[in-house]
Amino acid sequence: MKRWSFLLLILIALTGITAPLLRGADPEMEVAPPFSKPSWLGKETSPTLTVLLDNETLQKRIDWHYEKPRHYKIKGRIQFSGTPQEASLIWETPEKQYILEDLSGYYDIIINLDARDITFKLNLGILPFENAIDTLFPSKGDYGLLLISDVPVGSMELELKLEGDKYGLLGTDQRGRDVFSLFLLGIRVSLIIGISATLIASFIGLSMGLVSGYLGGLTDALIMRGVDVLLSIPILPILMALAAVWGKGLWQLVLILSLFSWMGTARTVRAMTLSLRESCYIEGLKGLGASPLYILYRHLLPETLPLLLANIALGVPGAILAEASISFLGLSDPRVISWGRMLHEAHSFGAFSNGAWWLLIPPGFGIALLCLIFLDIGKYLEELVDPRLKGEKLE
Amino acid sequence: MAFMKNYWIRRILSAFLVLLIILILNFVLFRMMPGDPVSSIIDPKFSPEAKAQLRKVYGLDLPLSGQFLVYARQMLTFNFGISFLTQRPVWEELSSRIPNTVVLLGSVLVLSSVIGTWLGIKAAVRRGTWVERFVLWGGAVSFSFPSFFVQLILLFFLAYLFPLFPLRGTVSIPPPSGGATALADYLWHMCLPVFSLVLLGFGGWALYVRNLMVKEMGEDHILLARAKGLPDRKIIWKHGFRTILPPIITIFLLALPGIVSGAVITETVFSLHGVGRFLLESVTGHDYPAASAAFFLLALLTILSNLLADLAYGLVDPRVRFEKRGRG
After folding, report:
1. Residues B236 and B121 sit within 8 Å (Cβ to Cβ)
2. Among A273, B31, B271, B328, which is most buried by a count of CB atoms within 10 Å?
3. CATH number reported for the structural domain that contains residue A281 in this entry
4. In degrees rounded to 5, what are phi and psi of residue B240?
């Protein structure tokens, strides 16, 4: 019954590892206009399409049954095998044919057309302040882009880009990047930071707890006073200051987070060591002349280890949330894509005024899901260590 | 030392100890930052004598311990120096922001503790009802969802899609005139931040109280109270709730730093004119005097509330006043 969280975690981790490999394209690339909607939203919304013409295909048909697109751009280069007497690039609408560019008399030409250009509009026969898209897309139906010429084409690369209002599974952000691939990349950062920060913190907490519990006296008093103080002051402001001083890299963040989250583990381990210290077999070991280091390493450490494992799993959500908070406040490395960073950008760069909820929901639920998974695994491990806890709900 | 046995004196002394550690931390944190207060004013064209003079004015010629004493005195007298960014005294910038943060923190603490405690007790008394399910769900949500995400969603729906609340700020622009309208406007702006923090805070709170209360209601003295035929209300509040009051104050102590951290984020999400957002702005703007002052004030607020809760603990649990060693 508890297996779902393990399975889900493995699945998520695999996705996180393979995501950068699966996506050949750079996630930083602008793929569509900013704030495009997810493509499953609205059948009528215009998609972002790319149509390619080359020397094999001189004609492409487009079945357009959407609203008008936002932008219309053609880029590329045509080389004819001789100088054509008559050649032109033609846009066919269901009603009429438009000559986009008259190529007669050119041997080699670079094409760079944009429907917003005044020359383009004059070429179509409309006024400069009119919208060329209205003319190019009068109705739904069958459209075509074709090249005609009286001499064969030597080499041609032509790309028509229709920029619409929807793209991909989760739309695009304020820079036109694909939100879905950003979301997949975010898994990596959350997992790396969450797990490694907790591991380091647990290590610190374990050593502090063992030493404090076993040695007692002044060492114990000092360490526990330190724990008390660290637990009674707000940590986030310290993290903010440190993130600003030490730089914003991934590993600096891991270090900063782990330096301020070992206190809980230290307390748990200390309590356990205190009770173990008084037990008979430790007394016996002492009597046999075992050194404190030996007792700590060979006997106390293995005893506390299972509990520590549960503690690690339960600590990961805290680290994930702390990383997300730091990134959300804009104090993380802007080149590292994380879920917190995505929410930061959504908050600061106008996701609200564009109604772009798809920039908010995926990273937020991603963080929550990861946290719930680790909480569940932690509960499971705790029950393994202490079967009495079984059956208690969320306590 | 006989007076160390007194609970009140011990708690106050320990608050001072925390304050001292905060001061040291603050000193280390913001002195570690590249550039000292003088290097931002010094022009490369200054003569060495002028530089030395400036260093003397700022106390930078003293040894580190002397510098710390100067620094501590400045902090404790709220003399935070001049902001690098605005070239105005930091205190002037901060003083207008403190009330907002205090109002935010205070109302959130009061509301979430009262609502959380009440719901937790209801959930414990009426097990298996919707109240209990609600509390369990609220607890799970508050443990796993990032606070700023929930706030962004609230902001998106309640301020953008259905503009019931303002999107940002503490006052409308232009600010309304007249006492009553200004107050109403202020409350209207604080509504969503307070509501969101209470929404996030009460769940965990109620969950703790529920667990404590469930355990308490199984105790013998409750059974005795029932056997005496006392009314339910009296059993719950006079016998059950009174006994779990000390641990509830402990929860309050444990939750406090998290709530202050939450306030920093909340002020950023809702663009409130508060100390937390000031801290973020000065940290990102490398305005160290301002950042250190804001950090110090937030820590001071926490220490003060901590001390208050500690004193309340002594009031509700007379045992700790007579013990040789306090808790912790």
Report:
1. yes
2. A273
3. 1.10.3720.10
4. -75, -60
> A282 is written with which tokens?
């430790």
Among the listed residues B303, B304, B277, the one whose alpha carbon sits nearest the alpha carbon of residue B290: B277
Query: Does residue A83 share a domain with residue A224?
Result: no
Minimal CA–CA distance to A158: which of A57, A75, A58, A72? A75
Please state whether A301 falls in left (phi above 0), alpha (psi between -120 and 50) or beta. Answer: alpha
Taking CB atoms and an 8 Å cutoff, what residues of chain A touch B19? Answer: none
Q: Is A122 helix (H, G, I), strand (E, B) or coil?
A: helix
Percent of chain A exceeding pLDDT 70 equals: 96
Banded pLDDT at B5 (limits 50, 70, 90): low
Please state the φ and ψ torsions of residue A172, each to the nearest 5 degrees. Answer: -125, 165
Beta bridge partners of A92: A97, A144
In total, chain A counts a number of residues equal to 395
Mean pLDDT of B166-177: 76
Does the structural domain B2-327 have CATH classification 1.10.3720.10? yes
How would you classify the pairing of strands A71-80 and A108-114?
antiparallel
* Residues in chain B, total: 328
Residue span of the structural domain in which A275 resides = 179-389
Q: Mark out the alpha helices in chain B (DSSP H runs).
A: 7-32, 48-57, 64-76, 90-95, 98-125, 130-144, 147-155, 179-217, 220-227, 232-234, 242-269, 275-284, 288-316, 319-322
d(CA A172, CA A28): 11
pLDDT, mean of residues A198-218: 90
Contacts of B147 in chain A (CB under 8 A): 325
- Rounded CA-CA distance A177/A341 in Å is 14
**Nearest residue on chain A to B20, alpha-carbon basis:** A229
ipTM: 0.82
- Each residue's pLDDT tens digit, A366-385: 999 998 888 888 888 888 87
Residues 6+ apart with CB under 8 A from B257: A231, A232, A233, A234, A235, B302
Residue A293 CA neighbour count, 13 Å, CB half: 0
Q: Which two tokens stand for residue A105?
A: 């008399």
Indicate the burial class of A284 (C-beta count within 10 angstroms; 0-12, 13-18, 19 or more). exposed
The CATH code of the domain that includes A72 is 2.60.120
Residue percentage of chain B with pLDDT more than 90: 3
d(CA B241, CA A328): 39
* Structural domain ending residue among the three candidates A163, A187, A202: A163
Q: Report the pLDDT averaged over residues B125-143.
A: 80
Element (H, E) at A67: none
Contact partners, residue B254, CB within 8 Å, separation at least 6: A231
- The count of C-alpha atoms lying within 13 angstroms of the C-alpha of A36, restricted to the half-sphere facing its C-beta, is 32
Percent of chain A as helix, strand, coil, to the nearest 5: 55, 15, 30
Percent of all residues in chain A with a pLDDT value above 90, rounded to a whole number: 10
In-domain check, residue A327: yes
Domain ranges of chain B: 2-327
- Which chain B residues are Cβ-neighbours of A240 within 8 angstroms? 264, 279-280, 283
Residues of chain B with Cβ-Cβ distance to A324 below 8 Å are 146, 148
CB A338 within 8 A of CB A324: yes
Q: What is the DSSP letter of A81?
A: S
The nearest alpha carbon in chain B to A331 belongs to: B284
C-alpha span between B264 and B191 (Å, rounded): 17
What per-residue confidence (pLDDT) applies to A205?
93
Residues A224 and A283 in one domain: yes
Q: Is A161 helix (H, G, I), strand (E, B) or coil?
A: strand
Yes or no, beta carbons of A368 and B257 under 8 Å apart:
no
Among the partner residues B148, B150, B328, nearest to A328 by beta-carbon distance: B148
